[in-house]
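wait is this the right file?? whatever heres the structure
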C-alpha cells in the first residue's frame, strides 16, 4: 500500500492547515475550476466526497491543483 503523499496548502485559516503550509486532513478532494462556484456540502475527513463523477482538465490552468500532470493514455 502506498503511503499518503505530503500535501502542501497555503490557506492558513483552514482547520487542517499546520505550520509549514502542511495539510493534515485525512481526505483531499480536488476539483476542476469549472466547479469553483458549485454548491457543495462542507466536508470532514470522515465524510464521503462526491466521487461518482469525473471531469477532464485540458491542463494545470483548469484545476486548482498546482501538481496536476496530464495522464498519457
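ok assuming it is, sequence goes like this
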Amino acid at each position: 500500500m502506498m503511503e499518503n503523499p505530503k500535501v502542501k496548502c497555503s490557506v492558513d485559516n483552514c482547520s487542517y492547515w499546520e505550520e509549514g503550509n502542511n495539510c493534515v486532513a485525512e481526505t483531499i478532494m480536488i476539483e476542476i475550476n469549472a466547479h469553483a462556484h458549485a454548491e457543495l456540502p462542507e466536508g470532514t475527513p470522515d465524510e464521503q466526497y462526491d466521487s461518482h463523477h469525473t471531469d477532464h482538465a485540458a491542463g494545470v490552468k483548469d484545476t486548482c491543483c498546482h501538481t496536476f500532470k496530464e495522464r498519457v493514455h
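The two ends are 24 Å apart (CA to CA). so i think its the right one actually
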